[in-house]
């Protein structure tokens, strides 16, 4: 596979996982009704086709609750809030922040019995914290709409879960991550064909990475690198190349865009494409022998035990699993939906799995997350210490 893919704009590419069409959003008429009554025409809303009396009862309770509180990446706030309101008539309060901060707040509140957040988007941290203690609400039995059921609309014909029970951490997305991003005005991307090339003394002090000590994309990246390249490679890279670590996606993107550190590890595609659209010459490199790995990214959702708005949370879960919800999330985060009927033409080509490539799957199971991946993160944390 090519070692470098040049990114000058949002490329239109055919997704390997198949493509559908963008769902047409439905909006309610302006008839002077209250917010709780200003719902779309449920008879014509595609995602609500086949809804029965059970769903009607959930919607009635959700309207009485009035809102749902969801935490996740800040860039999703406007799109998710507006689309959910248009499709359901229910208010969505979006709490944005870093994965580490949101996960910590979520856990603290749930353990105290005072959850203010209904649902949390992120990785798999709760596999080790809240799930073993029975502090997450099962999601699977709440997915009741006909349009979200398992079958031909889903990759491999099934829902995907991070937890072994297949109940609690619902995966909406799967895509390729774990690449190298360079500022093409300062670094020759074609010179980085393998991961060993990053060990060249020329790059000392020029590499920045998402901090693997913090919940976020850095942890998945180092886990995959350790398994594919061996842990001694990470030791050499982090100790000899004077790598800078940050726990903020914006800060990471700005550093490589400005050229402060022109090589970035674990920079998410949403940030890459934002700067590319502004004319910054960022290039993505897929070095051998690990040209990325598969991950659900931030697209994993879980529900707090004792969620303050349980009915509205159930409405959101069904909406997120629908074509409308998946399209909205995918278009902002550029993470490929596990639904096959979303329009994937705007996804960056470097995020699309390539035929014939045997990828490590970071979201394959709870077992990997709490064993091999955890061990690597603990080793790396000890290695880089308080840097």
Automatic annotation (TrEMBL):
InterPro entries: SBP
Gene3D superfamilies named among the record's database cross-references: Periplasmic binding protein-like II
Keywords annotated in UniProt: Signal
Signal peptide: 1-24
Top-level taxon of the source organism: Bacteria
Pfam families per the UniProt record, alphabetical: SBP_bac_8
Protein name: ABC-type Fe3+ transport system substrate-binding protein
Annotated organism of origin: Jiangella mangrovi
